[in-house]
Each structure stands twice: as C-alpha cells, then as structure tokens.
Amino acid sequence: MKRFILMGALALLCVAAAACSLPRTPPGAQEGLPACAQVVAAVLESQAFEEMTALSENQIHEALSVNDGLLADGAMSVDASMEACVAVLCAVDARSAGTAFAALSGYRDALPASGKGVGREVILERRDLYSVLIVCGDARAARAALAGVGWPSAP
Prior knowledge:
Residues 2-29 have low confidence and may be disordered. This protein has a five-stranded antiparallel beta sheet with strand order 1-2-3-5-4, sandwiched between helices. The N and C termini lie far apart (63 Å). By secondary structure, it is α+β, with helices and mostly antiparallel strands. Helix content is 41%, strand content 21%. The protein has five helices and five strands. It has helices spanning 2-20, 36-46, 57-64, 94-109, 139-148, and strands at residues 52-54, 71-79, 85-91, 121-127, 130-136. Strand 4 (121-127) and strand 5 form a beta hairpin. It has one domain (26-148).
C-alpha cells in the first residue's frame, strides 16, 4: 500500500515538474514572441563573437541598474572586454518597458568607445514590452537572426 502511495506521489511530482518547464509567455508579453534567452541564443549563433558570458538575472539587474520587479523575462550576454553585448528584456507592463528601454540605452552609451567604434554595429529597439540591445560586428546577420525567431520588423 505504501508503495502505491509513493508511486502516486512521484507521478504527481513528475507532472508538476513537466508543467513548470513548459515554455510560457511572460505575463503581459506580446503573444507569439519567443523567450528572451531564445532570441539571445539566435543572435549569438549569427555572430563571430569570441567568448560571451551569459549574465544571471541578478547580474542583469545590476548591470542595467533596474529593480527586480521590472522584468517578466530577460537574457543578456557580454564579452569580457564589454565590446560586444546581446540583451533582450521583456518588461512586466508598458511603464516598465520604457524604463527597460532607457536602461539598455544607458548601457549602450556607457560602453567603451571601442565597442561603438569601427567594426561594431549597434541595434537598439523596442517592440511592445520587449527591448533589445545588440552590439555586434554584423547587424545584417543579427537582424536576420531576430527575424528567424519571430522578432517583429520595424513599424
């Protein structure tokens, strides 16, 4: 009898774990747009970056000087020299989206001069609750990667 109860509890635990791992759109996010990490991964794959480091949620908040409750989803990778960056943020609401975009704009402005110089192109855009900052060597390939994962084109 104990074995059946244990197996039943284990089955419920597996179902709950599977449900938690399903991809989901963050609350208030535009339906159909991919998760931020998926967008960052696609852009990273499109570029010839040396070595990029993915930042944790806390590191993103610290790097951009944003509060914990501002983002529903976010992903950011940078290189050691800070000359390359791929960041995608999804805010919890329209007001927070403006703040998130301003934070990415400020981050872009604070990049080392070499990061904005020859051979580096900058993409900074906002779509609904999403904002993206890409500092890369090939903006055309980055835009193709964005389109490939469903990022809406400029209005």
